[in-house]
Amino acid sequence: MVRIAKALGLVILCVAVFILSLISYVSLRKDNLFTSSKYIMGGPRIMFHAGFRSQFAMNFLDPSFIPLTNALNEELQGKPYKWKFNKTAFYQQRKDIFSYIDIPSNFSLTKNSVRVGQLMHFDYSSHKYVFSISNNLKSLLPETSPILNKHYSMCAVVGNSGILTGSHCGPEIDQADFVFRCNFAPTEVYSKDVGKKTNLTTFNPSILERYYNNLLTIQDRNNFFLNLKKLEGAILWIPAFFLHTSATVTRTLVDFFVEHKGQLKVELAWPGNIMHDVNKYWKTKNLSPKRLSTGILMYTLAYAMCDEIHLYGFWPFGWDPNTGKELPYHYYDKKGTKFTTKWQETHQLPSEFKLLYKLHREGVTKLSLTHCS
Ligand SMILES: *[C@@H]1O[C@H](CO)[C@@H](O)[C@H](O)[C@H]1NC(C)=O
Ligand SMILES: *[C@@H]1O[C@H](CO)[C@@H](O)[C@H](O)[C@H]1NC(C)=O
Ligand SMILES: *[C@@H]1O[C@H](CO)[C@@H](O)[C@H](O)[C@H]1NC(C)=O
């Protein structure tokens, strides 16, 4: 009897030890995770948010995730950094950019810079792909660069990242003299956070495929027409010669504009093969992704027109640095859309962000990271 009791006690002891070691193993792993998260994010405020935790675990496994800088960690920890514009540094960078790219000339092809039948190539596609300049396309080109002699004291470049959601940055953005936007992003429903003003938006022709059914029905055409109407006076910057995959839909777009000539007051700009020069500049800053983001491209172009540039919506991660909550990839993505990292194959958004944050700390450019007051 005593023997049995002894044996039973031993078994219970073993089980207890096993369970204890299991618990300590799990908590050890958890500690590791949080130590790293502490290093990256700092705030205990953020650390215990469930959404953040799972999101962080994902980022931790994600090879593209790079630790952010110490300065940024501190800032996100609630030590707000008083940003101050350094005009000298800004003008120095402008000079550097200008030595690589003639932005006013490269902003758009003009009637004089191409001839009908000329074969264009694509910046990001094999050289074998060509696009013949048609009469119609040529008729849509501006006579001179739309930004020649345009100068604004304060510009905003608005990226499309989910961080804008709930930021209340709309009024601040609208105070800028000139607002750059990317990829025809909607503003109306989101104006509290992203503002109403649009003075330029990029328009990748593939948007017609994705959002306007290739303009195949009358309703698609009406929708597109009405959305263009809202941009009255703004510049539509159309990168038609970056990727050969947009060639077919570019013809649809060109036809549409020719048919509606006189009815729409958007100014069209059609950049040629400019990325070689733009890439060359950013390479001097050790940034050389397969493709630069549209946001940083707009930031580059803004140097030709602006005496100060503020950036919004450039946060590249799937969680809010202030609250730890999960974020969509774009501020206008449907609720419940998962953050995607598909861009990793071509873009290096975290590296771009890191570089822009460095420029922020140097007073060159203000990068908005938190909610606007
Ligand atoms: C502004 O930038 C210049 C050039 O980068 C630098 O030499 C100077 O120290 C900066 N001024 C301030 C106040 O930080
Ligand atoms: C860019 O500007 C340079 C200098 O004005 C010019 O030679 C070149 O043709 C332009 N390239 C494009 C694609 O517009
Ligand atoms: C920018 O766009 C707004 C409308 O969105 C317009 O009121 C304003 O005059 C434009 N500014 C410039 C400099 O074109």
UniProtKB/TrEMBL annotation:
Intrachain disulfide bonds: 155-306
Keyword flag Glycosyltransferase: yes
Protein keywords: Disulfide bond, Glycoprotein, Glycosyltransferase, Golgi apparatus, Membrane, Signal-anchor, Transferase, Transmembrane, Transmembrane helix
A molecular-function term among this protein's GO annotations: alpha-N-acetylneuraminate alpha-2,8-sialyltransferase activity
Any one of the GO BP annotations: N-glycan processing
InterPro entries: Glyco_trans_29, Glycosyltr_29_Sialyltrsf, GT29-like_sf, Sialyl_trans
Subcellular location: Golgi apparatus membrane
Recorded GO CC terms: Golgi membrane
Membrane disposition: Single-pass type II membrane protein
Domain of life according to the entry: Eukaryota
Ranges annotated as spanning the membrane: 7-28
One Pfam family matching this protein: Glyco_transf_29
Annotated family: Belongs to the glycosyltransferase 29 family.
Protein name: ST8 alpha-N-acetyl-neuraminide alpha-2,8-sialyltransferase 3
Phylogenetic placement of the source organism: Eukaryota, Metazoa, Chordata, Craniata, Vertebrata
